[in-house]
Amino acid sequence: MMTNIYQISDENISKAADVIKNGGLVAFPTETVYGLGANVYNPKAVASIYAAKGRPAFNPLISHIAEIDFLKTYAAVDERVLALAKHFWPGPLTFVLKRIDDNPALDLACAGLRTVTVRMPRHKVALDLIKKSGVPIVAPSANKSQTISPTTAMHVADSLGDKVDMILDGGQCTVGVESTIIDLTSKDVVLLRAGGVAVEDLEAFLGQKILISHGNPNLPTSPGQMLKHYAPSHEFRINAHCREDGEFFIGFGDVKDCDLNLSESGDLIEAAANLFSYMRIADSDKTHTKIAMSPVPEKGLGLAINDRIRRAAYKK
Ligand code: TXA
Ligand code: MG
Questions:
Q1: Which residues line ligand 1 (CB under 6 A)?
Q2: Do 165 and 253 sit in the same domain of this protein?
Q3: Domain tally for the chain?
Q4: Which of 32, 156, 204, 230 has fewest C-beta within 10 Å?
Q5: Residue 227, domain member (yes or no)
């Protein structure tokens, strides 16, 4: 019997908000699909989302907010963004915006990109949960990677039941497909994913054509491809067993002679939570000119960590 599905009540939403505040995972309903939520500012909680979903790579995650003002704390907001937000939010439309916040705690949620991805959902339970949590809630769809997105609490329980602390049962999602995602980081508006808001409605509102990223090499395409542009400026050597001259050495597990250790106990969730901030520290360190990193096992979150560091070490 499933014991972690909770009916909607003020008490249960408050309880879920406490789980979020304490670094746990809550699956919650939105109008599109159920999300697997965590505190956006808690990298360990964010890492456990990737672990629960079994994602082989760090995709940037959508942060869900309940007030437009919150956007301004971490994203570049101009007239166009505000107009779109006022018209289409709350609702199934997600913006990719330039990130203005330099808080390393956000790096994992943003997959190390200098963009932040945000939406305000329309479902009352989602809005209440975000308000009670007091932080944006980062949430991908609450299903295992490569499986169909969940539109009922039971779908979530079947896919991730034992991996989440609480599932809030808000009934069937009314929209049933994921949000539309648009990139607003340049003067063009680029569609990254078709979804709950029709492109025609966006074009009519904006009075401009929306570009489709798919297959166009000059436009941002999948985040996987984008990531290779975000390599550190220092030369980066992976699978290193010891430090060589001039290297800042990031260890993993039982490694003594290192500048920072992703996880001394070999915990991959802890390692994922530290990865982006440690790479930043290493890259900005003035006393070294190169970075080296210990091997990380190719299992669990190690797949996503290795995917990211291989891209970072990639030489054009
Ligand atoms: O309706 C939705 O959007 C649901 C509910 C829970 O809000 N969420 C959802 O999240 O579908 P997720 O993580 O399953 O899908 C978001 C997609 C991912 O494929 C991610 O790679 C892409 O959006 N994405 C997010 N930020 C991006 C960025 N900065 N650039 C390119 N792609 C991005
Ligand atoms: Mg998904």
A1: 30, 32-33, 35, 59-62, 92, 94, 96, 113, 115, 117, 121, 139-141, 178-179, 181, 192-193, 223
A2: no
A3: 2
A4: 204
A5: no
Q: Which ligand is nearest to the CA of 177?
A: 1
Whether 228 is covered by a domain: the verdict is: no
Find where tokens 């030489």 sit: 315
CB within 8 A of 168, min separation 6: which ones? 6, 8, 12, 13, 16, 26, 27, 28, 29, 125, 129, 153
Higher pLDDT, 295 or 227: 295
Is the model's pLDDT at 213 over the cut of 80? no
Atom of ligand 1 nearest to the CA of 224: 21
What residue type is 124 in one-letter code?
K
The pick from 53, 62, 98 for probing ligand 1's pocket by mutation, whose C-beta has the most ligand atoms within 8 angstroms, reads: 62
What range defines the domain where residue 246 resides? 235-312
User: Which residues, 6 or more positions from 307, have their beta carbon under 8 angstroms from its beta carbon?
Assistant: 56, 57, 58
Nearest to 281, CA basis, from 261, 266, 301, 298:
261
Q: What percent of the chain has pLDDT over 90?
A: 77
- Test site for ligand 1: of 32, 58, 59, 182, most ligand atoms within 8 A of the Cβ: 59
Please, which residues bridge with residue 250 across strands?
Answer: 260, 293
CATH classification at residue 253: 3.40.50.11030
Query: What pLDDT digit, counting tens, does each position of 112-144 carry?
Result: 888 999 999 999 999 999 999 999 999 999 999
**pTM of the entire predicted model:** 0.90
